[in-house]
Structures are given as C-alpha cells and as structure tokens.
Amino acid sequence: MGGGKSQLFVVDPLERLRPAKDSSVALMQAAQRAGQEVWVCRAADLAVDGQRSDAASAHCTPMVRAQPLNLADIRPDSTRTDSGGWQVPDPWFTAGEPRWLPLAHFPVVWMRKDPPVDEAYLYATLLLQLAEQQGVRVLNRPAALLAWNEKLGSLRFSELMAPSLVSANVERLAGFAAEHQEVVLKPLGGRAGQGVVRCAAAAPGLRALLELVTQQQTLPVMVQAFLPEVTAGDKRILLVNGEPLGAINRRPMPGEFRSNLAVGGAPEATMLTAAELAICAELAPALVADGLFFVGIDVIGERLSEINVTSPTGIREIERLGAVPVADLTMERLLRG
Question: Are residues 198 and 255 located together in one domain of the fold?
C-alpha cells in the first residue's frame, strides 16, 4: 500500500476524535472517496533516521510509524441530535497494523494535530520540515504553522480588525481598556475560546486580572475593543488555497459572549457579505504564498478576528447546514494541483 495515492494525517489519538464534528475525519473521508489511501499517526510517531541516508544526497531520512485506516460512511441525519446531526456507524473506522515508513512514502501529509502549540508540536513541525525538503507536500506548510500564530498572524491585516493591542505591560493594557471602555482579553496560545475574558475598564479588579493573565508582566496577551455585534454571531469562513468554500455563523449561548462551538455556540447557516468576501480576497495572496492551504478565519461584524491555521474546524457544520461539500471540494482542489 502507499505511494502516489496515499495521504498521511497527523492527528490526535483516534479515540479522542469526534467523527460527527471533527474536520480531520471529514477530510480523511473525502480523501478515501477520492481514491486515496488514508494513513494516520500521532505527532509522537514522527522520527528521523540519521543512519538511513540517500547515498547520492547523504540526507537523513524522516520516518513515521503510521497505520492505514478505512473509514465507514458517515452521513448527515437531522434526526440524530445525539451526534450533531450525523449518522455515525460504530465502529466508524478500522485500522491496520502500524508500520515504519519513510515520510517521503506519502506525497501529502496533513498536519492536523490540535493546539496547544507546545514543545512537542514545535518538534513535530520541525521534523515535517525535513520531509518537506525531500518533496513531501505538508498541509499546512510547517514554517507557516510556526510563523502564523492565530492571534498575532491576524495583525498582519490589522486594518481589517477591531482596535487591538498586544503587550505584557499592565499600564499599556489598562490604558487601552480605558480608551475603549469594554475589551476582550485573549491569551496568544489559546484555542476554542479558552481563556478569553470580556471586561470593562471600570472593573475594580482589572489591574489584578491583567497581572494574572500576563503572569506578572512577563507574558504578552492580546486585548481588543469589544464588538457588540458578536451577540448576532461570529462567522467561521473556511478558505482552501485562498478561496472561500463555505461558512457558518456561530451564535453565543444566552449569557455568554464567546461563540466558539466548543463553549456552547450554536451553528447556523449563513451567507457571506460583500465585505466578508473582500476580507477573504485581501488575505488570499499572503495565505497562498506561505503555503496555508486550509485556513479558517473568524469574522465578527464584518471585521477580521482571527486566522486559524493549525487545525481549523467547521467542515461538518457547513456541510450539514449549508449543503456545501467542503471536504470533497478541498480534496478536489488538492488533487488537481
């Protein structure tokens, strides 16, 4: 098995994936439907062998302990409220025996390990860079995964965003809050809305909070002017090679301002406005140039909020609510080169 029609997915352990929600599973299914062999591994299964080298080039050999996967058919089913509107067979996959293979065995490798972008993630990405140097196409490009922090990367387009500041200095952060009255604090390494706090400049404990989130002024955080439009929702837009393929609106649950699905946001069908399409068009050249093939951007009130590059989600919700076959369209664009 393997070779020109194989794709490797670097993912979290299979038992932790939720097939009715996980975009990685949707992409694997699309690869299988497109006639590709699907293989999986964990980040810890990546290695490099300095003893196995190409005699002509004297390069080391990036390796992986991977296993082939066969996925069951998972279909939308509006009657299945217990599984997010999808019919999920049990088991939803069968896996073959793990094997050690050169990473160059796989023309395409998807880096779909969920954050945090910690030390283990960093080393996995660097190992994938070695494979990329030997002709493997890694999605998203390893160097871009490291360079495009999902909060800081969006600041390359700060003119599209709400007023924002990144700093570890409490005085500067408090001054920004005083200027904008109500703000949102975001840890730079956060994901899925975790650690995001809304606060008012007049709050008695603001400075203590700022000291806490900056770890006594040693760790920078992002602070943004609060956008009241978030009560109407936060749009997740999926871009493939710079092209917007679909979107969902995520509406916060009552009493909550965070709209992330992981913290209870409710997905609903949506259409893109002219302003949102213009945001996508402005981002596209930079995303394509840096090898960011599969990206999820967040837009609130027609302002860019974040650019998600590590393991963007949203495929299942867009496919179910918008009837757009995002995973198959993604695979089609990938395979046509």
Answer: no
